[in-house]
Design brief:
The protein is built from 45 helices and no strands. Mean pLDDT is about 90; it is low at about 20-25.
Length: about 775
């Protein structure tokens, strides 16, 4: 009997083993096992492991629609959006009635701005599921992406009518209403969101932003505080309060919030960074640097902190420490795009702009939509003398990322260089919108209005800049500029001095203060002001530059001016302005060889600045060394091919030395396109025409040179009168020719070529 029982148990064991073996070989069982395992991983947030299991399931059964659907979700969580879209498409091929997958696909296509494909999916959904609120919500998103806001709002209202209790729909409606500039309707929608879901912080934050935009500051404060109460683990309500207090001119309260946030969020980067960010946006860069340094030591693995700190160091000009931190990032990840861009910025600062441009173009080749790379490439182009290329790259950066402040700032600086105050106003307004808690945008917009003599429009921006950051020099400098433009010199002087009291290194403030003294014909006090500030900041290259400029006014003290410029360049060899003025002072003192040596040194340390080669050419011209003069102008054109001054001067040298007239004509025409209002360039062009026998064109250009001289209030140039006299003579206009040549003798009776002029007059008789 026992033997029989043992046989029976053995038989059962064998049967079970065979059954299990059969199951393990059954594809249906195996795919289900992988699928359920993938779901378990997905629920735990282990998306990589989940994706592997779902892939195993579809390998066994390529037509397993549910596994393809879940694999798509895993890919989306892993930021593999392209692969996720492919899996959604495969899901719908296998299961066309999977409406949740089709709606998700449509929304993702809208998000990727693949609008025609999205519209195909949504049109099918509207036909097959006209009563589904999710379908109308998707259609609303499509219409908004197409720029049709009113129809988009109508579609969202249809979705809400079908499911009025879904708070997310009301939130999306509010965002559309804000986009359509219908803030009152948006306020009602946001309140509805809060009614349906009192625990949402997002709606309260949006409501607070709405109140702030309407200057309902008390309501905004309550909304932000309520958002923090319902979501105490989220640092964003604290950040919103900081922005609100800064907008109200309450920096002490903003700083207090930032300090508490650092304490309350010791493990949340967005929270403990708020204090450093506060110092940065209010212009207190030294405190910002100290805070970032401390945070980087406390959180060495926080890449956001390290990168923010590097960007601040680059802005402060501390390239050594920035390079050290950047090398740490690249050691861990040689392909980190941000770190590669920082390295290029450091290369630019070291005078290797062309190397940086080459590296950045490689970055852009791999990532053409990298706005930061385009911005820094613009910096490299600017340093290389390619201002047009720089502007193109900065505009591309802003198009790709409209909130890229550095690119907008660069465009604003370019606007100031070009004197385009309308464009400066637009860029400054954009800075205000993006960073309302910073004084910079208000100060720049005030500057644009001051230069356009719109003083009443400038005043509130000046006041706002001071209220937001009373410890910063930004607002006080513009207050000085405003009072100076209005002729209120005592007030302007006080404002500039206050700016210097807040920032003893502010070149703009000292420059304004000195200009005020000059406007009051108190040149000695302007010089004293520069020396006083140098005593406080003895290592400020810009201050010595200003002192030298003041001393060289009317050539009062060229020797002392040269010493000041020399000190300025010793402190900063990249200060091309001081280096150029040093060479000019040396030349004015008769030290031509010394001035040429300074220009050579300046061109070596500032290879992207053609000014040194141009001045060298002028110095060689003064000694009638035509060969070296021509070489210098050609080097200037190699740096900046369209430079009108270099092109004109090279053409002039070719005339003096018997060069090719056709080449000279081409150069003069290039110069005229670049500086159409220059009488000197019109003169060169006319004289070339005269040498070529094109006397009618010569007369036209030379008459234009005289008109331009009168228009620009240039000193009456005897050379232009001489050239026009010869052109008239060659054209048979004897009386006009004699009139012009006699004018030459009136202007310059003792000139070295006076005898030649008299000879020409005698020949006319």
């Amino acid at each position: 009997m026992q033997s029989c029982g043992r046989k029976y148990i053995c038989l059962i064991t064998i049967t079970l083993a065979l059954l299990l073996a059969s199951c393990s070989r059954n594809p249906e069982v195996r795919k289900q096992k992988y699928f359920h395992s993938g779901q378990a991983y997905f629920e735990k947030g282990k998306y990589r492991e989940a994706a592997i299991e779902f892939i195993n399931a579809v390998k066994i059964d390529p037509n397993y629609a549910a596994a393809h659907r879940q694999l798509a979700e895993a890919f989306f969580r892993l930021n593999k959006n392209e692969a996720g879209l492919q899996e959604l498409g495969r899901t719908l091929q296998l299961d066309p009635q999977n409406y949740s997958a089709r709606i998700e696909l449509a929304n993702l296509l809208v998000l990727n701005h693949t609008l025609p494909e999205a519209q195909q999916q949504i049109e099918r959904l509207l036909t097959e599921r006209p009563e589904d609120p999710a379908v109308h919500a998707a259609n609303s998103s499509l219409l908004a992406a197409q720029g049709s806001l009113s129809p988009a709002i109508a579609e969202m209202n249809k979705a809400i009518a079908l499911d009025p209790g879904r708070w997310q729909l009301h939130l999306t409606l509010a965002l559309l209403q804000l986009q359509k500039n219908d803030p009152d309707a948006a306020e009602a929608s946001l309140k509805k969101v809060i009614e349906l879901n009192p625990n949402t912080s997002q709606a309260r934050l949006l409501l607070g932003n709405y109140y702030q935009s309407r200057t309902r500051y008390d309501d905004a404060e309550r909304a932000f505080q309520a958002a923090g109460n319902v979501d105490p683990t989220n640092p964003e309500p604290r950040a919103a309060l900081i922005r609100l207090y800064l907008a109200q001119g309450k920096p002490a309260q903003a700083e207090d919030i930032a300090r508490h946030a650092k304490h309350d969020f010791p493990n949340d980067s967005a929270g403990y960074r708020l204090l450093a960010n506060f110092y940065f946006v209010t212009g207190d860069l030294d405190k910002a640097a100290a805070e970032y340094r401390s945070l980087n030591q406390e959180h060495p693995g926080d890449l956001t902190i390290k990168k923010d700190y590097i960007q601040l160091l680059l802005q402060k000009g501390d390239f050594g420490e920035a390079n050290h931190l950047d090398a740490e990032i690249l050691k861990s990840n040689p392909n980190d795009g941000d770190a590669l861009i920082y390295r290029s910025q450091i290369q630019i600062s070291n005078g290797h702009a062309r190397d940086a441009a080459t590296a950045l173009q490689d970055v852009i080749k791999n990532d053409p939509d990298n706005a930061e790379a385009h911005y820094v490439l613009g910096m490299a182009f600017e340093k290389s003398g390619n201002s047009q290329g720089a502007e193109t790259e900065w505009r591309t950066a802003v198009r790709l990322r409209p909130n890229l402040l550095d690119a907008i700032r660069s465009l604003a600086a370019l606007d100031m260089t070009k004197g385009d105050m309308d464009d400066l106003d637009r860029n400054a307004t954009q800075i205000v919108q993006l960073q309302p808690a910073s004084p910079e945008g208000y100060a720049l917009r005030a500057l644009a209005n001051i230069n356009r003599k719109r003083f009443s429009a400038a005043d509130p921006d000046v006041r706002r800049a001071i209220a937001i950051a009373p410890q910063s020099s930004f607002g006080y400098v513009q207050l000085g500029n405003l009072k100076f433009a209005e002729g209120q010199f005592d007030d302007s002087r006080k404002a500039y001095q206050t700016a210097l009291d807040h920032n003893q290194n502010s070149r703009d403030a000292l420059h304004g203060l000195m200009n005020t003294y000059f406007a009051q014909k108190r040149a000695d006090q302007a010089v004293d002001a520069a020396r006083t500030q140098i005593a406080k900041s003895p290592n400020n290259s810009g201050f010595y530059d200003l002192l030298g400029t003041a001393l060289s006014t009317d050539r009062k003290d060229l020797s002392a001016a040269a010493s000041a410029f020399q000190k300025s360049t010793d402190l900063d060899q990249n200060n091309s302005d001081a280096m150029l003025k040093l060479a000019q002072a040396q030349a004015a003192m008769g030290s031509t060889e010394q001035a040429i040596a300074t220009c050579q040194r300046g061109s070596a340390t500032n290879p992207s600045d053609p000014s040194f080669h141009i001045l060298m050419g002028d110095l060689y011209q003064s000694t009638q060394d035509w060969k070296h003069a021509a070489d210098s102008y050609q080097k200037a054109l190699a740096v900046k091919p369209q430079n009108p001054v270099a092109a004109n001067d090279l053409a002039s040298v070719m005339l003096q030395s018997g060069g090719n007239l056709d080449v000279a004509l081409s150069l003069a025409q290039t110069a005229r396109r670049g500086m159409p209002d220059s009488p000197r360039i019109a003169d060169t062009l006319g004289w070339i025409y005269c040498q070529k026998g094109a006397y009618r064109s010569a007369v036209d250009s030379l008459e234009e040179a005289l008109r331009l001289g009168q228009k620009t209030h240039s000193p009456d140039d005897p050379r232009i009168h001489y050239h026009l006299g010869i052109a008239y003579a060659k054209s048979g206009k004897t009386a006009l020719a004699r009139q012009q040549l006699e004018r030459v003798l009136q202007l310059s009776p003792n000139a070295s070529d006076a005898a030649d002029t008299k000879k020409q007059i005698a020949q006319l008789k």
